[in-house]
Design brief:
The structure holds two protein chains of two kinds. Chain A has helices at 2-6, 22-30, 35-61, 103-115, 123-141, 148-168, 185-211, 216-230, 234-248, 257-283, 286-294, 299-329, 341-351, 360-391, and strands spanning 64-66, 72-74. Chain A is mainly α. In chain A, helix 7 (185-211) packs antiparallel against helix 13 and helix 11 (286-294) runs antiparallel to helix 12. By secondary structure, chain B is of the alpha+beta class. Among the domains of chain B are: 2-48; 87-154 and 283-395, Orthogonal Bundle (MetI-like fold), CATH 1.10.3720. Chain B contains twelve helices and eight strands. In chain B, the strands form three sheets. In chain B, strands 1-2-3-8 form a four-stranded antiparallel sheet. Chain B has a two-stranded antiparallel sheet with strand order 4-5. In chain B, a hairpin with a 2-residue loop joins strand 6 (252-254) and strand 7 (257-259). Chain B is globular, with a radius of gyration of 30 Å. Classes of the chains: A mainly alpha, B alpha+beta. At the A-B interface, helix 3, helix 8, helix 9, helix 12 and helix 13 of A face helix 2, helix 4, helix 5, helix 11 and helix 12 of B.
Chain lengths: 396, 400
């Protein structure tokens, strides 16, 4: 009897209530946990369906696509976007009431959106430069590929020279000269963003060092420049470089319009980058530079070999993040009538009578917005990834 | 003895001309002299080139043009701008337009941004995801493009005035802009304002009394409800007693457009929408980071004390989050003000449009126009950051 008492009775294992696991459990916990949450969930569902349906209807159901023999068709025809884009010459069918996106506009103008008015027979040069850029970026940015120093040197020292020679021509091998007036589209966006970033880097380093200098005049000059530039909008800087800069140069010396915009962007970005780099310089422990002093290193040696490498490692995410801002800001050059991606979309969408229709400009904006979004979102995700990798040494 | 001899030696070394360069003070002085010479040369050559170039273009430098009559019209004038107005007046009109759009933008973007930032932290999965999608879209598309979408695509596709979209409260939205009822104040409205002032003063006094009482007895008086009563009910009573001294002038359709009411032009509406949608995304991120940045232990301690969620947020989380939020929020306000200069691209007559476009083209005084423009923006930036620094000091942690 006593033995029977002590024999443990195996009971069937009871799992958690069915309503607290799986899809139902998740929904109860995350969507319907209270009355307010339930109301919010239904409001959110209504909003999501409203917006999603609006987007699908506009972009697919009522949208116009390239059809066979240069005719328009509507419905889901994504695969036909780039078939015979040249057979369609105008956006007249898009003028019909209730039409969604006018995709043939994008298909027809696509080369312009990428190259601007760059001569058609020379566009391979832009392609080669783009391929070199992408290869360089991939080698530099994918953490697993070794040889970062060499790829950085290629991208920041060799590539600009090659790209400049390829894009503007002249010099060796006698490529035909292509003036910057005919550059446009994504090409100009990339040139402004990349030259702006590369050019702003040394400016930012010098200004940041100047701001932390023990010599008052260097400090005041740097602070003055940084605060002046950071206190005004980029547009005023661009106006300054496009309207005032020619007046400041000796008569007879003229600067290319794109170059003037680039100088403005570099000054602007340099001031912001100086503040980012200053943050990194401040984070390097004081003992590092004191140790360098104790070893008898000169100032350039101390900064170049001890302080900057540590500071720059800290500010890489910051610099990549500020590049997102710069990439978006490149669109401002259209105000001083340079035609970057947005500029050329705006020009074609609102000033080409053949394509004028109620939906043309929205179609163009959606295209431009997608390009900008993919680039900016990609860069910021990359920056977060780098931040995590670089912080791996500090996390315990 | 030995020490003094070393010192002597050192002194003689310094005195010797060839080695003076090894002394840091001498070297620094030399570098700074070189900097002054370089900068001086730069500015001098800029000045010389500019005066030569301007002379060859027959442009007389100086700010005399500010007193000349500006022969152009401005599409939105919130202060008097008669036909005889000068360029100086035109700049003032532009400045007012910049300030108005920035202020409205700052207030709405802060509200919207806080809402979205809190939504991102919501325990409701769907709400949090919607807010996240909004933040990623608004922050990763250029503001200029967003302004174009609002102005050229969204607002331009609105119906004509006769088919205007009627908004609740007698507002109308059409391709001509947003028309809202305009409040008309009669002379007796002063009573309502006086009642409001009394209500606010009473609330402040009551809050102080309540704090004092709480320190003494530990009991907390219902400050919120009493305050709401004083600030809300008192003016409402005064309004009724004084015989409703405020009416609304409703916009009415006359011919092809609305007459009466308060008209917000499409440019203004697009600017506000664009600035709020864009900056709201940044503010949402700042708010999210601020609330998430409050230590977990703080919330756990508040829970352990038995505070309900609302009280915990109000007394423990928000005050600490605000310290993290305010500095980056300041720079967003500054950014919004500076970004309002993009109005030039959609013809909103802000400071940049008036100065860098119209004035520049009409007077051909690029140096002066851009200098005034930059000067005003610098002043605005400095004023905003001074105010926010003051506010930040008030909010800062008071440590022993």
């Amino acid at each position: 009897m006593a033995g029977a008492m002590t024999t443990p009775v195996a009971r069937p294992e009871i799992g958690p209530p069915r309503s607290s696991v799986g899809v139902i459990g998740w929904a109860r916990a995350n969507l319907f946990s209270s009355v307010t949450n339930t109301v919010l969930t239904f409001l959110g569902l209504w909003l999501t369906f409203k917006i999603l349906w609006g987007v699908i209807d506009w972009a697919f159901v009522t949208a116009m696509w390239n059809g066979p023999d240069g005719r328009y068709i509507s419905g889901f025809h994504i695969w036909q976007l780039f078939t015979e884009p040249w057979a369609i010459r105008s956006g007249a069918p898009c003028r019909a009431e209730g039409t969604g996106a006018c995709w043939p506009f994008i298909a027809n103008k696509f080369p312009q959106f990428i190259y601007g008015r760059y001569p058609v027979d020379q566009r391979w040069r832009v392609d080669v430069a783009l391929v070199l850029l992408v290869v360089g970026l991939v080698v530099l940015m994918v953490p697993r590929i070794p040889g970062k120093v060499w790829s950085a040197a290629f991208l920041f020292l060799v590539f600009p020279v090659i790209a400049f020679w390829l894009l503007s021509g002249g010099g060796l091998l006698g490529l035909p000269v292509v003036k910057t007036e005919v550059w446009g589209g994504l090409l100009v966006t990339l040139v402004v963003a990349l030259v702006g970033l590369t050019g702003a880097f040394p400016v930012g380093v010098l200004l940041a060092l100047g701001r932390r200098s023990k010599m008052p005049l260097f400090r005041w000059a740097s602070v003055g420049f940084i605060e002046l530039v950071r206190g005004v909008p980029l547009i005023t800087i661009l106006f300054m470089s496009s309207v005032m800069l020619p007046l400041f140069l000796p008569s007879g010396v003229t600067l290319d319009k794109l170059l003037r915009a680039l100088i403005g962007v570099m000054m602007f970005q340099g001031a912001y980058m100086a503040e980012t780099i200053r943050g990194g310089l401040q984070a390097v422990p004081r003992g590092q530079s004191e140790a360098a002093d104790a070893l008898g290193l000169s100032y350039p040696q101390k900064i170049g070999l001890i302080v900057l490498p540590q500071a720059l490692k800290l500010v890489i995410p910051g610099i990549v993040n500020s590049f997102v801002g710069l990439f978006k800001d490149t669109s401002l050059v259209l105000i001083i009538s340079l035609f970057d991606l947005l500029g050329i979309v705006q020009l074609n969408a609102n000033a080409d009578p053949a394509w004028s229709s109620p939906t043309t400009n929205m179609t163009g904006y959606v295209f431009a917005a997608s390009v900008f979004w993919i680039c900016c979102y990609g860069i910021s995700r990359y920056s977060q990834m780098i931040e995590r990798r670089l912080a791996a040494g500090e996390t315990r | 003895m030995r020490l003094s001899s070393t010192r002597e030696q050192h002194g003689s070394l310094a005195a010797a001309a060839p080695n003076a360069f090894y002394r840091p003070e001498v070297r620094q002085a030399l570098y700074q002299v070189v900097l002054v010479i370089c900068l001086g040369w730069l500015f001098w050559s800029i000045y010389r080139n500019a005066s030569t170039n301007l002379a060859s273009q027959n442009v007389s430098a100086g700010f005399a043009f500010l007193g000349r009559t500006a022969g152009f019209d401005i599409s939105q004038t919130l202060i008097a701008y008669p036909a005889s107005a000068t360029f100086g007046d035109a700049i003032l009109v532009g400045l007012v337009n910049t300030l108005v759009v920035s202020l409205i933008g700052i207030v709405l973007a802060t509200l919207f941004g806080f809402l979205m930032g809190i939504a991102r932290l919501s325990s409701n999965w769907l709400v949090a995801k919607i807010a996240a999608v909004y933040v990623e879209i608004s922050r990763n598309v250029p503001l200029l493009l967003q302004l174009f979408v609002w102005y050229f695509a969204v607002l331009a596709s609105l119906p004509a005035a006769r088919n205007a979209v009627a908004l609740p409260g007698n507002g109308y939205l059409s391709i001509r802009g947003l028309y809202l009822p305009k409040p008309v104040f009669e002379s007796d409205f002063g009573f309502v304002l006086a009642a409001l002032a009394t209500g606010i003063a009473g609330t402040v006094a009551f809050a102080r009394y309540a704090n004092m009482r709480q320190l003494q007895t530990g009991h907390r008086l219902p400050v919120l409800w009493v305050g709401l009563g004083l600030i809300g009910v008192l003016p409402a009573l005064a309004f009724l007693i004084a015989g409703r001294p405020m009416t609304f002038d409703d916009p009415k359709l006359q011919g092809f457009n609305f007459a009466g009411g308060m008209a917000l032009q499409p440019e203004m509406v697009a600017m506000v929408l664009g600035l709020v949608f864009y900056t709201g995304g940044y503010i949402a991120e700042i708010v999210r980071a601020g609330i998430a940045g409050v230590g977990r232990g703080q919330k756990e301690a508040a829970r352990a004390l038995g505070l309900p969620t609302g009280t915990m947020m109000r007394l423990v989380v928000i005050p600490q989050a605000m310290r993290i939020i305010i500095p980056p929020l300041t720079s967003q306000f500054l950014n919004l003000t500076k970004n309002s200069s993009l109005g030039i691209a959609i013809a909103y007559p802000d400071l940049t449009h008036v100065l860098a476009n119209t004035t520049l083209n009409q007077t051909n005084q690029p140096l002066e126009a851009i200098a005034i423009l930059m000067g005003i923006y610098l002043t605005l930036s400095l004023a905003t950051s001074l105010f926010m620094n003051w506010f930040n000091t008030r909010m800062a942690l008071v440590e022993r």
